[in-house]
């Protein structure tokens, strides 16, 4: 029976030895009664696997959409952002580890129904709601219900995810998502195995699925960690893969690492590394390559892929200059910019505003 925060799930099956295997993500946790999966928010209760934190959140905040990061999806607009607790990867460098590694339900201090979230987003003039801070793959049922409520009220839904999910639940999930930023954490199985406790191949599969088989707008983020995933060779391979397997118009964001969680022994990423990566990715053919987390006017700017003039200039998350027509075309040469645009940009700026939920 469903209670307030515990709901039935359907991506699991029973094994011959009596354990239940969760089929939501490629970790395939095999659970005895009373056990929780690695993500901690899903667990076996009697004869089924349930999601145990439906409607619970670690807090709500209104962010600029550029912070997700999404630079080609309704630029300048505010997005109501929230996450839950737990994660299905175990990245040693996690920049949100207080949320993602939480085993404490008291981190989940706020609760909100999908309708309450939407009414809060509407009251604050948000254009969308984002599932972020931790991976929405693990709160699949809640995220889908919120996305459905968004669409009933003219809002967009945004997933920020590592893309570590099995094909069937992925198909259901992305039917309801308007935009996604997927972390492509590196381009080697070694990195995924040693540093994240996962695998690269399912993530590449998710990227191909989203780009080729859904209408979800896709951008990709790679956090560069000195000495781990920042070699010229790896950056070139990753960029070439995006260019050839997806499209040269998928935006790629290189962001800077700061020492955190279990990776305090690596230095922060210097700006020169982000700029070098951006140059390599552009040489490989990608048309929209951004740098993030550090001030870099060139790396924050959207250039027209046809005439190379600046179309959207930013300082961090703030839009400084806008040279698109109301139809989303370059004002100078008429090229249609890839993405989703309104006739004028939003003016939310770089604010980050914690909010409480409308009851
Ligand atoms: S979603 Fe959670 S319980 Fe299911 S396989 Fe992944 S980590 Fe394990």
TrEMBL record:
The keyword Membrane does not apply. Pfam families: Radical_SAM. Its cofactor is [4Fe-4S] cluster. PROSITE patterns: RADICAL_SAM. It comes from Marinobacterium maritimum. This is AmmeMemoRadiSam system radical SAM enzyme. Residues 72-296 form the Radical SAM core domain. The keyword Iron applies. Keywords: 4Fe-4S, Carbohydrate metabolism, Glucose metabolism, Iron, Iron-sulfur, Metal-binding, S-adenosyl-L-methionine. The gene is amrS. It comes from the Bacteria.
């Amino acid at each position: 029976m469903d209670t307030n925060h515990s709901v039935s799930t359907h991506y699991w099956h029973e094994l011959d030895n009596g354990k239940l295997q969760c089929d939501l993500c490629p970790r395939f946790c095999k659970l005895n009664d009373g056990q929780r999966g690695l993500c901690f928010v899903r667990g076996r209760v009697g004869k089924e696997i349930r999601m145990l934190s439906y409607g619970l959140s670690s807090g709500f905040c209104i962010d600029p959409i550029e912070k997700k990061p999404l630079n080609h999806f309704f630029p300048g607009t505010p997005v109501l952002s929230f996450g839950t607790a737990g994660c299905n990867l175990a990245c040693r460098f996690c920049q949100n580890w207080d949320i993602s590694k939480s085993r404490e339900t008291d981190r989940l201090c706020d609760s909100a129904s999908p309708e309450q979230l939407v009414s809060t987003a509407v009251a604050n003039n948000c254009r969308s709601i984002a599932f972020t801070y931790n991976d929405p793959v693990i709160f699949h049922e809640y995220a889908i219900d919120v996305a459905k409520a968004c669409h009933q009220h003219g809002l967009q839904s945004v997933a920020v995810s590592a893309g570590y999910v099995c094909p069937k639940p992925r198909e259901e999930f992305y039917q309801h998502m308007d935009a996604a930023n997927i972390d492509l954490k590196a381009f080697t199985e070694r990195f995924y195995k040693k540093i994240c406790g996962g695998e690269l191949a399912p993530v590449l599969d998710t990227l191909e699925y989203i780009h080729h088989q859904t209408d979800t707008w896709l951008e990709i983020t790679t956090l560069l960690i000195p000495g781990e995933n920042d070699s010229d060779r790896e950056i070139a391979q990753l960029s070439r893969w995006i260019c050839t397997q997806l499209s040269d118009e998928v935006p790629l964001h290189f962001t800077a690492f700061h020492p955190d969680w279990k990776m305090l022994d690596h230095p922060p990423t210097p700006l020169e590394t982000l700029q070098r990566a951006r140059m390599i990715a552009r040489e490989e053919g990608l048309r929209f390559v951004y740098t993030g987390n550090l001030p870099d006017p060139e790396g924050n700017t959207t250039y027209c892929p046809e005439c190379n003039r600046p179309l959207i200039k930013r300082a961090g998350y703030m839009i400084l200059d806008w040279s698109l027509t109301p139809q989303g075309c370059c004002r100078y040469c008429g090229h249609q910019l890839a993405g989703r645009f309104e006739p004028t940009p939003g003016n939310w700026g770089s604010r980050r505003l914690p909010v409480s939920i409308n009851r």
